Amino acid sequence: METTKRTFPLRIDDNVAIWTEFKELTLRYNCLSLGEGAPGHNPPQFLVDNLVKAIEEGHNQYSRVMGIPELNKKIADVYGKKLGRDINWMTEIFVSAGANSAINSIILGIIDPKGGDEVVVFEPCFPQYQDHVQMANARYVPVPLDYKEGKWSFSKETFRAALNERTKILILNNAHNPTGKLFTLEELTTISAILKDFPNVIVLSDDVYEYLTYDGKHSIMFASLPDTFNKTVSVFSGGKLFSATGWKVGWAIGPADIINAASVISTTTIYCVNAPAQVAMGRCLGDVIETQRFKEEGVSYVQHTRKEFEIVRNYMIEELQRAPIDLELTPLPCESGFFVMVDISKAICKIPTRFLESHDYEILEEGQTPVSKNRVFIEGRVPYDLAFCRWMAVERGVIMMPNSLFYNKESPYRIDTLVRLSICKGYELSVWAVQRIKGKQKTE
């Protein structure tokens, strides 16, 4: 039987997903995973208690397709304060099966399916952006974030040059994955000013890491800038906010016409979202952000989580800077999010040849089947970051993600000398993983 021709030709992992390969490596080599953004701790007990209560109360059937009123009203209240405006809970909010699903629905709701529209994205970026753009039959246009003088930044000239009359969406991820960058007020103001010359562009503001900011810094929502709300759809993640990523509850806030179009798509694909989880999050949304009573620490749950991740971030950066002489690594500053980036440029020369020269890098025992492998090349060679990550998985038992995953394969801006490590897995696992990276523990 011949299957669909709808594929994702621009994905750097278009033959075998890098995620698939590294899942198999995790199992085969007993790896500790610093690869994915899933917290290593459970959601707060007050959320779990409210979930159980919602189930017992009978919230177990189909719900309002744009979101249960109890949750939508709370979203309108909490984010209305942040945006400094009244939000209509019925028409300017829709709840989806996670932020990623919301992003897909928004893009499909805006882009002309006949083709010709363009979507501008800052790279490196969350890989699924590429899939959503291609699924919508739009053209993906990257703008590079460059790391210079200790920070990530973009060129105003390059950004402006990426825009034209065909541009329909700018995807703006702040706080940013994978770099951990926080866009400054000056940068956001610059983006807003440039977009005034392109009035048909909608900003899809991916704000899923909004509260995970470090060193006393804060994330600025693009929709909070003057005269931006009516041209912005902001996306948020209940899963990341509550450390419950498997519950798959997210929401979007924006102009009623765009929210309606996106909700039509969402209704077609998922119909409605987990009802008891919506009720639980609606009852806890204010508490998780504002109530200063978590674990008798005098802080909110968000503040507690931020502190825990910041401790791990600081440990990783400090320890990896003291890595052995044979593995010189340079962690980059991390202002936000689930991850820290590490420069491996000075360690490339230490990668065993078999990882650099071929995608068939495993030394297999008789009868053993190789793991599924991505076979992407950059300029005719195995990407350095992919080779490094495979080496770390096979010989040191740690999973991390190559930076080249976060670009499409035709992008001229790809950097393959960085890797991404998760800081959300908990202190104990992180210490163990760092010691493995430094070669101090075996992988039994």
TrEMBL record:
Keyword S-adenosyl-L-methionine assigned: no
One GO location term (cellular component): cytoplasm
Assigned keywords, A-Z: Aminotransferase, Pyridoxal phosphate, Transferase
Highest rank taxon of the organism: Eukaryota
Cofactors: pyridoxal 5'-phosphate
Family under the similarity heading: Belongs to the class-I pyridoxal-phosphate-dependent aminotransferase family.
Protein name: Aminotransferase class I/classII large domain-containing protein
Lineage: Eukaryota, Sar, Alveolata, Ciliophora, Intramacronucleata
